[in-house]
């Protein structure tokens, strides 16, 4: 078995298992939350350890030597507008149960405006960077070694989408889950293409961070 395939097998199932443990199997148990947290730790630690000790390469800050920030900002703004458009398009159909969303926000503490804003800042700035590090810098490169760059764009986007499907399914009906999952997949395609083109996580992160903003704006409207 090739090393890239080994790396993918060690990482790809873990985020989905973490979401299933924390949101479906043991949602109100400390066991589920611990397993969810461990899954997050695993997908952050594995790429760094693998790169340094298996690929035997020095850690890098992924410098943006080829630019890419203009397309990153433009793509982030374009996708953000699509998200707002999709929300206002489906809102009249009653697909989004704001009451259920508020109940879940109360359980997690996000019904507190200060907590919500803090979580939004974390997700927009830190979590988006972690996801780019995991899914573009690590997962995309492993797929690229196996199947080439263009196919890796699609494969890594699918891997990125999979655990989001479970997370969305726990909170929304199948129609919103399907629509939002399609949006996640499109985002994954976009950010993988940016990495393929510019070879740095930083343009990917800029685009990703911009796209996360409308998600939390809509979340604020629904909860408060």
Please describe what this structure looks like.
The chain is globular. It has helices spanning 3-11, 13-25, 30-54, 69-90, 98-108, 113-147, 149-169, 174-198, 201-223. The longest helix is centred in the middle third of the chain and has 35 residues, at 113-147. It is built from 9 helices and no strands. The protein is an all-alpha fold. The chain has a domain at 68-223. Helices cover 82% and strands 0% of the residues.
Outline = globular
Q: Estimate what percentage of residues fall within beta strands.
A: under 5%
Structural class: mainly alpha
Distance between the termini: 51 Å
Uncertain segments: none
Helical percentage? over 70%
**Oligomeric form:** single chain
Nearest-integer average pLDDT: 94
- Taking all Cα atoms into account, the compactness measure Rg is 18 Å
Order of helices and strands: HHHHHHHHH
